[in-house]
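USER: Study each token:
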Amino acid sequence: MPIIELLKAVLLGIVEGVTEWLPISSTGHMILLDEFIQLKASPAFKEMFLVVIQLGAILAVVLLYFNKLNPFSRRKTSRQKRDTLAIWGKVIVGILPAAVLGVLFDDWLDEHLYNYITVAVTLILYGILFILVENRNKTRRPTVRSFHDLSYQTAFQVGLFQVLSLIPGTSRSGATILGGILLGASRPLAAEYSFFLSIPVMFGASALKLVKFGLHFTGMETALLITGMIVAFVVSIAAIKFLLSYIKNNDFKAFGWYRIVLGILVIGYFLLFH
């Protein structure tokens, strides 16, 4: 039986690693996947697991962008170090709205919105928005192409879009990328800024869940959590590289259509079998 539970953690790690970075909602997919392959663990552990497993995914960003995000690198000039600190300043400004509201409404969101109806509706809604925004942007050229062009005001406005991702099924990366594009950012910059915003957000969310759960794990619970995080880390590296390569020559409409189809399938499944 334990090996089956570990295989479930591997599958959950794969799904987390793929969906965390693509704008298709990792939380939404994890909630839905849990309907089909439920871990044999307490509800409190599963709630914590589905959030803390994201630490594996975020460590992939830290690894891939370590040099760019490290203001203390000896290989950087003084100006490059200042530019790196400016990136972190814009990240801090961008996370403030979601950090404040996330702490205030975490319990309410868990109780009222973590369900298939919310996930299905948000999958479809933001899928439609991605298609509409990309159609609107066909004739527009981005005005913000680098972090130097990204003002603190725009960074804060992107952070307001990130608040939407507190609703399951929205997609944190989807909300911030969509917000960035609407505010004039290029797709590569919007994606990178979304990755960087996720670092403190995910560490904070994971710490909050760990504190609520407590640090008293059984041996099996420890094995499940570590397995899920390692798999999410490895898969995330591939997913991030894929997304950055994909958006060089493609828009996000394919993800929009995927979200719409998945949302419809979710509604159909739960209406027929629940």
